[in-house]
User: Which sequence fits this backbone?
């Protein structure tokens, strides 16, 4: 019997693989597609070269003042000269390590909550997270821990956006959880108070809340009593965030099947045990995409602070644009830079968020 | 809920700072700095530079007060404020002086519980045209397209002025001053109208500033000055006379360079202002050398003007109304004696 010999493997025919085929299949498969491809190519061809030219090739990179901007392109000298203000505000130069320390601590805790063993994670990362805003305030202010006192008037720039958003989110997290629980509670007083709080802070525009915090609130204090403006804003942001997150959590609570509550009850767990050990982990898993979307929203909302004269990044940019030595119309460069910085941050947040979602994904879906 | 209350309570406790209610002057001396409400950014008037240092004509008022009261012009705590929150910040005691290009009007002076301590810049609405237009006066602007920022009193003044003179115009409104400038630059309108101090700032932002000119007409009165709380006369006096001292020093020919000479061997009026044999300072409860400190550390009004908005600055605003009364302006100080 003749031994069976399979034919040697053949490469795929040239007309179904390879880049040329891909182009044919995807870009020129029909007259309409061909037309669209050509139009888009023509559009990109006319737009991209001048854009790159303006952004990079004929842009001005070196110098310390406006007169260095002699080329046709973007005046990045403006952004470079103001970079310290953009990132750190007017914080004293020799004390910048304090801001850096707070930012590093924030990043370190985020990484720790990823990397730590899961037994340690809750015991270490959660208390650290909750302490972080207060430790940061102590470090940045300095007067309580023997460092040089730096008034909040000097805080500013992008680091303020980041730290303020982080501090609001961290405090809002437990607060909103309590509000959401309160809203589901059977006790009429707690329930009605929670509903009022949630609906108020969700229903009022954040700009109106900022104005209330900065303009209205001081009038209610006795004369001569000043609550720091930044502190007022922090409280406003926290409450605003809590209102939104409470509703996100409520959605999560409702999505947990009733059987889970009943199972916990039948095991004889008390209310807090049931909530913290059985329900909350599932709620967080379900609501994670929404929670992170709310984070991104809040982070971007911190730029609204410009309307009440706090020098976060966007309002620093506006201030820089009105300096009489920089009146040459650099608004495009300035706002573009702010947009890029925020986009990078928000995009990394969504990358982190999708990786968290994958990590938490224990669903029964295929 | 318990958590919420405790969070708010602790935060309030952390941030509270009690100031004595008695007098702002006492507070300032005790605290060792002047808390000054400024604009978040207005070229030449209150502006921050790359290093975070504040400068400007409005800022100099606060520096002068700090020099007069504390002997050190750098002891100012700047509180950047937007237009909407400026009066509340003063009323609630968050700031001691509001020096933020605020127009002195009857309503503000009488109904807000505030007092204007003087005028540090006489502004008014003006027009900027392209030089190619060949126009020498606003009265020749019949039928012109006018670029204007929406929702400001500028719009009202413009309508009044053109109607009173029987001139027709076509208003093109923009939301921000940047857009207004872009509109002017792209030729959508022949004229741009705004407050004069703004016009000069807008002009620098043009591609070719020298192709545009500001017309001589000023069609509204906008006296800008520092504001303090009503009912605190000691502090009101200090602020008013700090400003006056700057104007008076220029009138008497004392500037930051010759102040020492004027103090030692100047004319009697010069010596008196510099605190020699004068109890002007004691009467206000501040050091004898108050005016000397102002002039040496901040400069006289003319120096401050030229440095921040005048010929030594990029803005190059002419003195105009803000010149001394004997030089064609209306800057006039009561005598210090």
Assistant:
């Amino acid at each position: 019997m003749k031994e069976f010999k399979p034919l040697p493997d053949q490469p795929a025919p040239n007309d179904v693989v390879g880049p040329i085929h891909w182009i044919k299949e995807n870009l020129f498969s029909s007259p309409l597609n061909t037309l669209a491809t050509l139009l888009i190519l023509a559009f990109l061809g006319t737009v991209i070269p001048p854009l790159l030219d303006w952004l990079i090739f004929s842009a001005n990179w070196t110098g310390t003042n406006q007169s260095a901007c002699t080329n046709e392109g973007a005046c990045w000298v403006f952004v470079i000269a103001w970079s310290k203000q953009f990132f750190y505000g007017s914080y004293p130069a020799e004390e910048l390590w304090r801001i850096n320390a707070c930012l590093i601590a924030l990043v370190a805790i985020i990484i720790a909550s990823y990397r730590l063993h899961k037994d340690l994670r809750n015991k270490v990362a959660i208390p650290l997270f909750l302490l972080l805003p207060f430790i940061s305030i102590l470090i940045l202010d300095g007067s309580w821990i023997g460092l040089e006192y730096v008034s909040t008037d000097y805080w500013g720039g992008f680091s303020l956006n980041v730290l303020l958003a982080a501090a609001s989110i961290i405090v809002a997290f437990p607060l909103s959880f309590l509000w959401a629980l309160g809203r589901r509670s059977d006790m009429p007083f707690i329930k009605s108070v929670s509903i009022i709080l949630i609906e108020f802070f969700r229903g009022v525009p954040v700009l109106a809340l900022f104005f209330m915090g900065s303009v209205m609130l001081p009038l209610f204090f006795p004369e001569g009593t000043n609550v720091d403006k930044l502190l007022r804003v922090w409280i406003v942001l926290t409450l605003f965030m809590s209102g939104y997150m409470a509703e996100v959590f409520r959605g999560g609570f409702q999505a947990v099947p009733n059987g889970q509550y009943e199972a916990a009850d039948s095991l004889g767990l008390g209310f807090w045990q049931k909530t913290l050990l059985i329900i909350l982990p599932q709620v967080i898993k379900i609501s994670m995409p929404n929670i992170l979307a709310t984070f991104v929203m809040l982070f971007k909302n911190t730029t609204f602070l410009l309307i009440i004269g706090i020098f976060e990044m966007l309002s620093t940019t506006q201030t820089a644009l009105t300096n009489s030595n920089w009146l040459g119309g650099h608004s495009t460069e300035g706002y573009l830079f702010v947009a890029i910085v925020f986009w990078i941050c928000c995009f990394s947040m969504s990358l982190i968020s999708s990786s968290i979602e994958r990590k938490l994904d224990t669903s029964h879906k295929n | 809920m318990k958590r919420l209350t405790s969070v708010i309570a602790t935060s309030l406790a952390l941030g509270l700072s009690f100031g004595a209610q008695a007098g702002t002057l006492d507070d300032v001396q005790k605290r060792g700095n002047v808390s000054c409400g400024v604009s978040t950014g207005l070229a030449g008037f209150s502006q921050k530079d790359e290093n975070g240092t504040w400068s400007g004509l409005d800022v100099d008022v606060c520096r002068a007060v700090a020099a007069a009261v504390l002997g050190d012009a750098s002891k100012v705590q700047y509180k950047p404020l937007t237009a909407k929150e400026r009066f509340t910040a003063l009323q609630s005691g968050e700031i001691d002086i509001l020096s933020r290009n605020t127009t002195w009007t009857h309503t503000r002076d009488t109904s807000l519980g505030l007092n204007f301590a003087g005028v540090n810049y006489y502004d008014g609405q003006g027009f900027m045209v392209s030089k190619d237009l060949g126009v020498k006066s606003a009265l020749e602007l019949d039928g012109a397209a006018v670029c204007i920022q929406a929702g400001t009193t500028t719009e009202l003044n413009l309508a009044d002025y053109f109607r009173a003179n029987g001139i027709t115009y076509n208003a093109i409104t923009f939301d921000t001053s940047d857009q207004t400038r872009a509109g002017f630059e792209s030729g959508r309108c022949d004229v741009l109208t705004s407050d004069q101090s703004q016009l000069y700032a807008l002009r620098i932002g043009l591609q070719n500033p020298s192709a545009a000119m500001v017309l001589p007409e000023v069609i509204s009165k906008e006296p800008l000055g520092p504001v303090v709380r009503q009912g605190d006369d000691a502090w009101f006096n200090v602020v008013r006379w700090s400003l006056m001292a700057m104007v008076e020093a220029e009138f008497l020919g004392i500037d930051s360079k010759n102040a020492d000479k004027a103090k030692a061997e100047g004319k009697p009026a010069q010596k008196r202002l510099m605190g020699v044999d004068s109890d002007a300072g004691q009467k206000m409860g501040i050091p004898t050398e108050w005016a000397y400190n102002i002039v040496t550390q901040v400069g006289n009004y003319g120096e401050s003007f030229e440095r921040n908005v005048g010929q030594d600055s990029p803005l190059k605003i002419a003195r105009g109304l803000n010149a001394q009364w004997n030089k064609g302006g209306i800057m006039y100080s009561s005598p210090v004696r």
